[in-house]
Write a structure and sequence with these properties.
Blueprint lengths: L1 H25 L3 E3 L2 E3 L5 E2 L2 E4 L20 H12 L1 H15 L2 H10 L3 E7 H4 L10 H17 L2 E8 L18 H4 L1 H18 L5 E5 L17 H15 L4 E5 L18 E7 L10 H9 L4 E7 L3 H13 L3 E5 L2 E3 L6 E3 L5 H10 L5 H14 L6 E2 L1 H7 L4
Parallel strand pairs: 4-5, 4-11, 5-6, 6-7, 7-8, 8-9, 9-10, 10-11, 12-13
Antiparallel strand pairs: 1-2, 2-3, 13-14
């Protein structure tokens, strides 16, 4: 009798678990043919904004070159100028103030429905072999998630800087200008470990709609020899995620800044979509037709996961073309220092040229001179102190 009761209890538990899983899965966005489908079963068009410079600062957004072209170099510059303790305090304040609930509220108000969040792995993991998780980093993601849920803005987590670096350039915070993610098993293992942890934390969160496994891997040229490892790594990461999370869509990017899809065929996962990026080339259908065609051939959604850094005339033509052809998109980025071609511009602090000159040409500045400039920057990155470039939004968001 006791054995029968145990069997019955196990059967009921399995039934409840499976039923709960079905209910959970129905709350999530998914792919269906070449479309994205929301929780109500209706087609969904992704209009995203990239949160560049928040969790992975890029030198060009600060006016920096060479010695300040990537996160680890920017960190070193600031530490050398104001000291280790005050530099650590600066970064806490920077990450707290660069993206706040007021940013998410405004993102929704101006017409975006999704944020693509570039992540540097060092925000979430220690750099040693243990690769322990950093709760202070995950709290940043948790806070953003809370705000996005409140304001009904969806999230795509984007691994912009993977362990070792997936591009071998400054944009992934590469330490030695090599794509060491693909060169060393330990880096691939850390990447899998990180994605499993993200999946574990967000498996039941429908405001998160997709995991963007690697940003712009393996630019064409001397690193092309590693391209054969890209698809196997995508499959490895996806398999690890699916051990935990069968709910979320996964997006993978081609090689060569996301645009070489030569390794793509029919999707290897039932909830997968392909991603390309577009900068500076003609704002015409011909510039993206090959991606549209492959999406139809393989019956999979496609997404323009990054575009921007141009002028309003180009934006108007490009985004109208995308909307007319049902190609979801993500604009890059939300804000940066002293810019007119993105939605918000951070005003330059008084004396900012001195910091830029120090980085780019060796201009001498001491802590007493530098500290007030960085303190002022912390205030200026708050959205209420930024300049709203209305014309940019009018060029991006196509009124129906």
């Amino acid at each position: 009798m006791r054995n029968k009761q145990i069997v019955l209890l196990l059967f009921l538990f399995t039934l409840i678990f499976n039923f709960t899983s079905i209910i959970i899965a129905e709350n999530f966005m998914k792919t269906e043919g070449t479309n994205f489908i929301d929780a109500n079963g209706k087609p969904f068009f992704i209009r995203a904004i990239g949160l560049g410079n928040w969790l992975l600062p890029e030198g060009y957004m600060w006016g920096f070159r060479g010695n300040g072209d990537r996160p680890r170099k920017i960190e070193k510059v600031i530490e050398n100028l104001i000291g280790e303790k005050d530099a650590a305090d600066f970064w806490i304040k920077f990450r707290k103030n660069y993206m706040r609930e007021s940013d998410v509220k405004r993102i929704k108000e101006v017409g975006f429905n999704t944020v693509r969040v570039p992540i540097n792995w060092r925000i979430l993991m220690t750099e040693d072999d243990a690769a322990d998780f950093k709760e202070e980093g995950f709290k940043l993601l948790a806070d953003l998630t809370k705000w996005c849920k409140k304001h009904k803005v969806y999230i795509v987590w984007d691994l912009h800087g993977a362990p070792g670096g997936q591009t071998g350039t400054n944009i992934d915070d590469s330490e030695f200008d090599k794509p060491e993610l693909f060169m060393y098993e330990k880096n691939m293992a850390k990447t899998v470990k990180l994605w499993k942890e993200i999946a574990r934390r967000y498996v039941n969160e429908p405001i998160v709609i997709a995991y963007d496994l690697l940003n712009e891997p393996l630019p064409q040229g001397k690193f092309s020899k590693y391209k054969k490892h890209l698809l196997p790594l995508y499959k490895r990461i996806t398999a690890a995620i699916r051990e935990i999370d069968k709910n979320h869509m996964i997006t993978i990017e081609g090689a060569n800044w996301a645009n070489d899809w030569s390794m793509f065929r029919e999707p290897f996962d039932s909830n997968l979509f392909y991603q390309f990026h577009k900068y500076w080339n003609d704002p015409t259908l011909g510039s993206i037709q090959s991606y549209i065609s492959k999406g139809k051939t393989y019956n999979v959604p496609i997404w323009l996961g990054e575009t921007g850094e141009n002028d309003n005339s180009w934006y108007k033509k490009t985004f109208k073309m995308l909307e007319d052809n049902n190609v979801s998109w993500a604009f890059w980025p939300w804000k940066k220092i002293d810019a007119t071609n993105n939605p918000y511009s951070v005003k330059k602090p008084k004396g900012w040229y001195r910091i830029v000159s120090h980085v780019n040409s060796g201009y001498k500045i001491d802590k007493d001179g530098a500290q007030p400039i960085f303190d002022e920057l912390i205030e200026y990155i708050k959205i209420e102190n930024c300049i709203y470039n209305k014309e940019v939004i009018e060029a991006i968001i196509i009124k129906k």
